[in-house]
Amino acid sequence: MQQTLVIIKPDAVNRCLVGEVVKRFEKKGLQIKAMKMEMLQPYILKEHYAHLKDKEFYEELIKFMSKIPSILMVLKGKEAVSVVRKMVGPTKGREAPPGTIRGDYSVSNQSNVVHASDSEENAKIEIERFFKKEEIYDFKKMNFDWIYSRDETYIDKTKK
Ligand code: TYD
Fold first, then answer.
1. Does residue 160 sit within a domain?
2. CA 36 / ligand 1 centre spacing (Å)
3. Torsion region of 107: left, alpha or beta (phi above 0 gives left; psi -120 to 50 gives alpha)
4. Is the beta carbon of 41 within 6 A of some atom in ligand 1?
5. Residue 78 domain-assigned (yes or no)
6. Are the beta carbons of 19 and 122 closer than 8 angstroms?
7. Residue 51 is among the residues annotated as catalytic for this protein
8. How many whole angstroms separate alpha carbon 25 and alpha carbon 59?
9. Got the DSSP string for 132-154?
10. Is residue 61 lining ligand 1, measured as CB closer than 6 Å?
11. Per residue in 95-121, pLDDT tens?
12. What is the pLDDT of residue 154?
């Protein structure tokens, strides 16, 4: 099982889309391991978006992300990183296909509703960046055995 970080961004919080986004992940079968609201500070956002520091939209992005609180989540599931990225869709809302979160709720490059980790390696780094260990809960949900088949979970535990 993998874990991934999702940030429901300030545009989604302002547009009352938090419930819609959480509902999609829950209905898919992903497990919420952690969830909190936080006013993200520029210092942590600069670290999080360091790969974009030379882009012309970088300063605006930091301002936008630190304007009002975001919702942060850790989601768990088999291949959770790619499952969540597919559900989120490509970066630019206008280009994201219908059926994806960005495709259904965004027409913007910046205000694109959610952030989701793009690799298992980055997911680990990002979860550690935004969550303390004690904020992440490990438990077996009662519907777990109905979400995956036995061979996907119990038999080959080495598989992601
Ligand atoms: P990036 O890491 O490239 O994409 P993703 O969020 O899909 O992993 O970009 C990070 C964020 O930067 C993106 O979610 C929104 C913002 N952004 C802009 O504000 N303007 C732009 O033109 C682009 C491409 C991204």
1. no
2. 22
3. alpha
4. no
5. yes
6. no
7. no
8. 30
9. -GGGS-----TTHHHHS-HIIII
10. yes
11. 999 999 999 999 999 999 999 999 999
12. 67
Query: How would residue 160 be classed by pLDDT, with cut points 50, 70 and 90?
Result: low
Q: Is 112 in the pocket of ligand 1 (CB under 6 A)?
A: yes
From ligand 1's centre to the CA of 27, what distance in Å? 26
Using the structure block, give the residue that is written with the tokens 């302002």.
14
Number of domains in the chain: 1
Is there a domain that residue 141 lies in?
A: yes
Please tell me the distance between residue 51's alpha carbon and the centre of ligand 1 in angstroms: 10
Q: Which atom of ligand 1 is nearest to the CA of 91?
A: 7
Domain of residue 94, CATH code = 3.30.70.141
Report pLDDT for 156.
53
3-state secondary structure (DSSP) of residue 131 = coil
Q: Which atom of ligand 1 is nearest to the CA of 51?
A: 2
* pTM confidence score: 0.95
Q: Which of 11, 89, 115, 131 is catalytic?
A: 115
Taking only the tens place, the pLDDT of each residue in 9-50 is 999 999 999 999 999 999 999 999 999 999 999 999 999 999
Atom number in ligand 1 closest to CA 90: 7
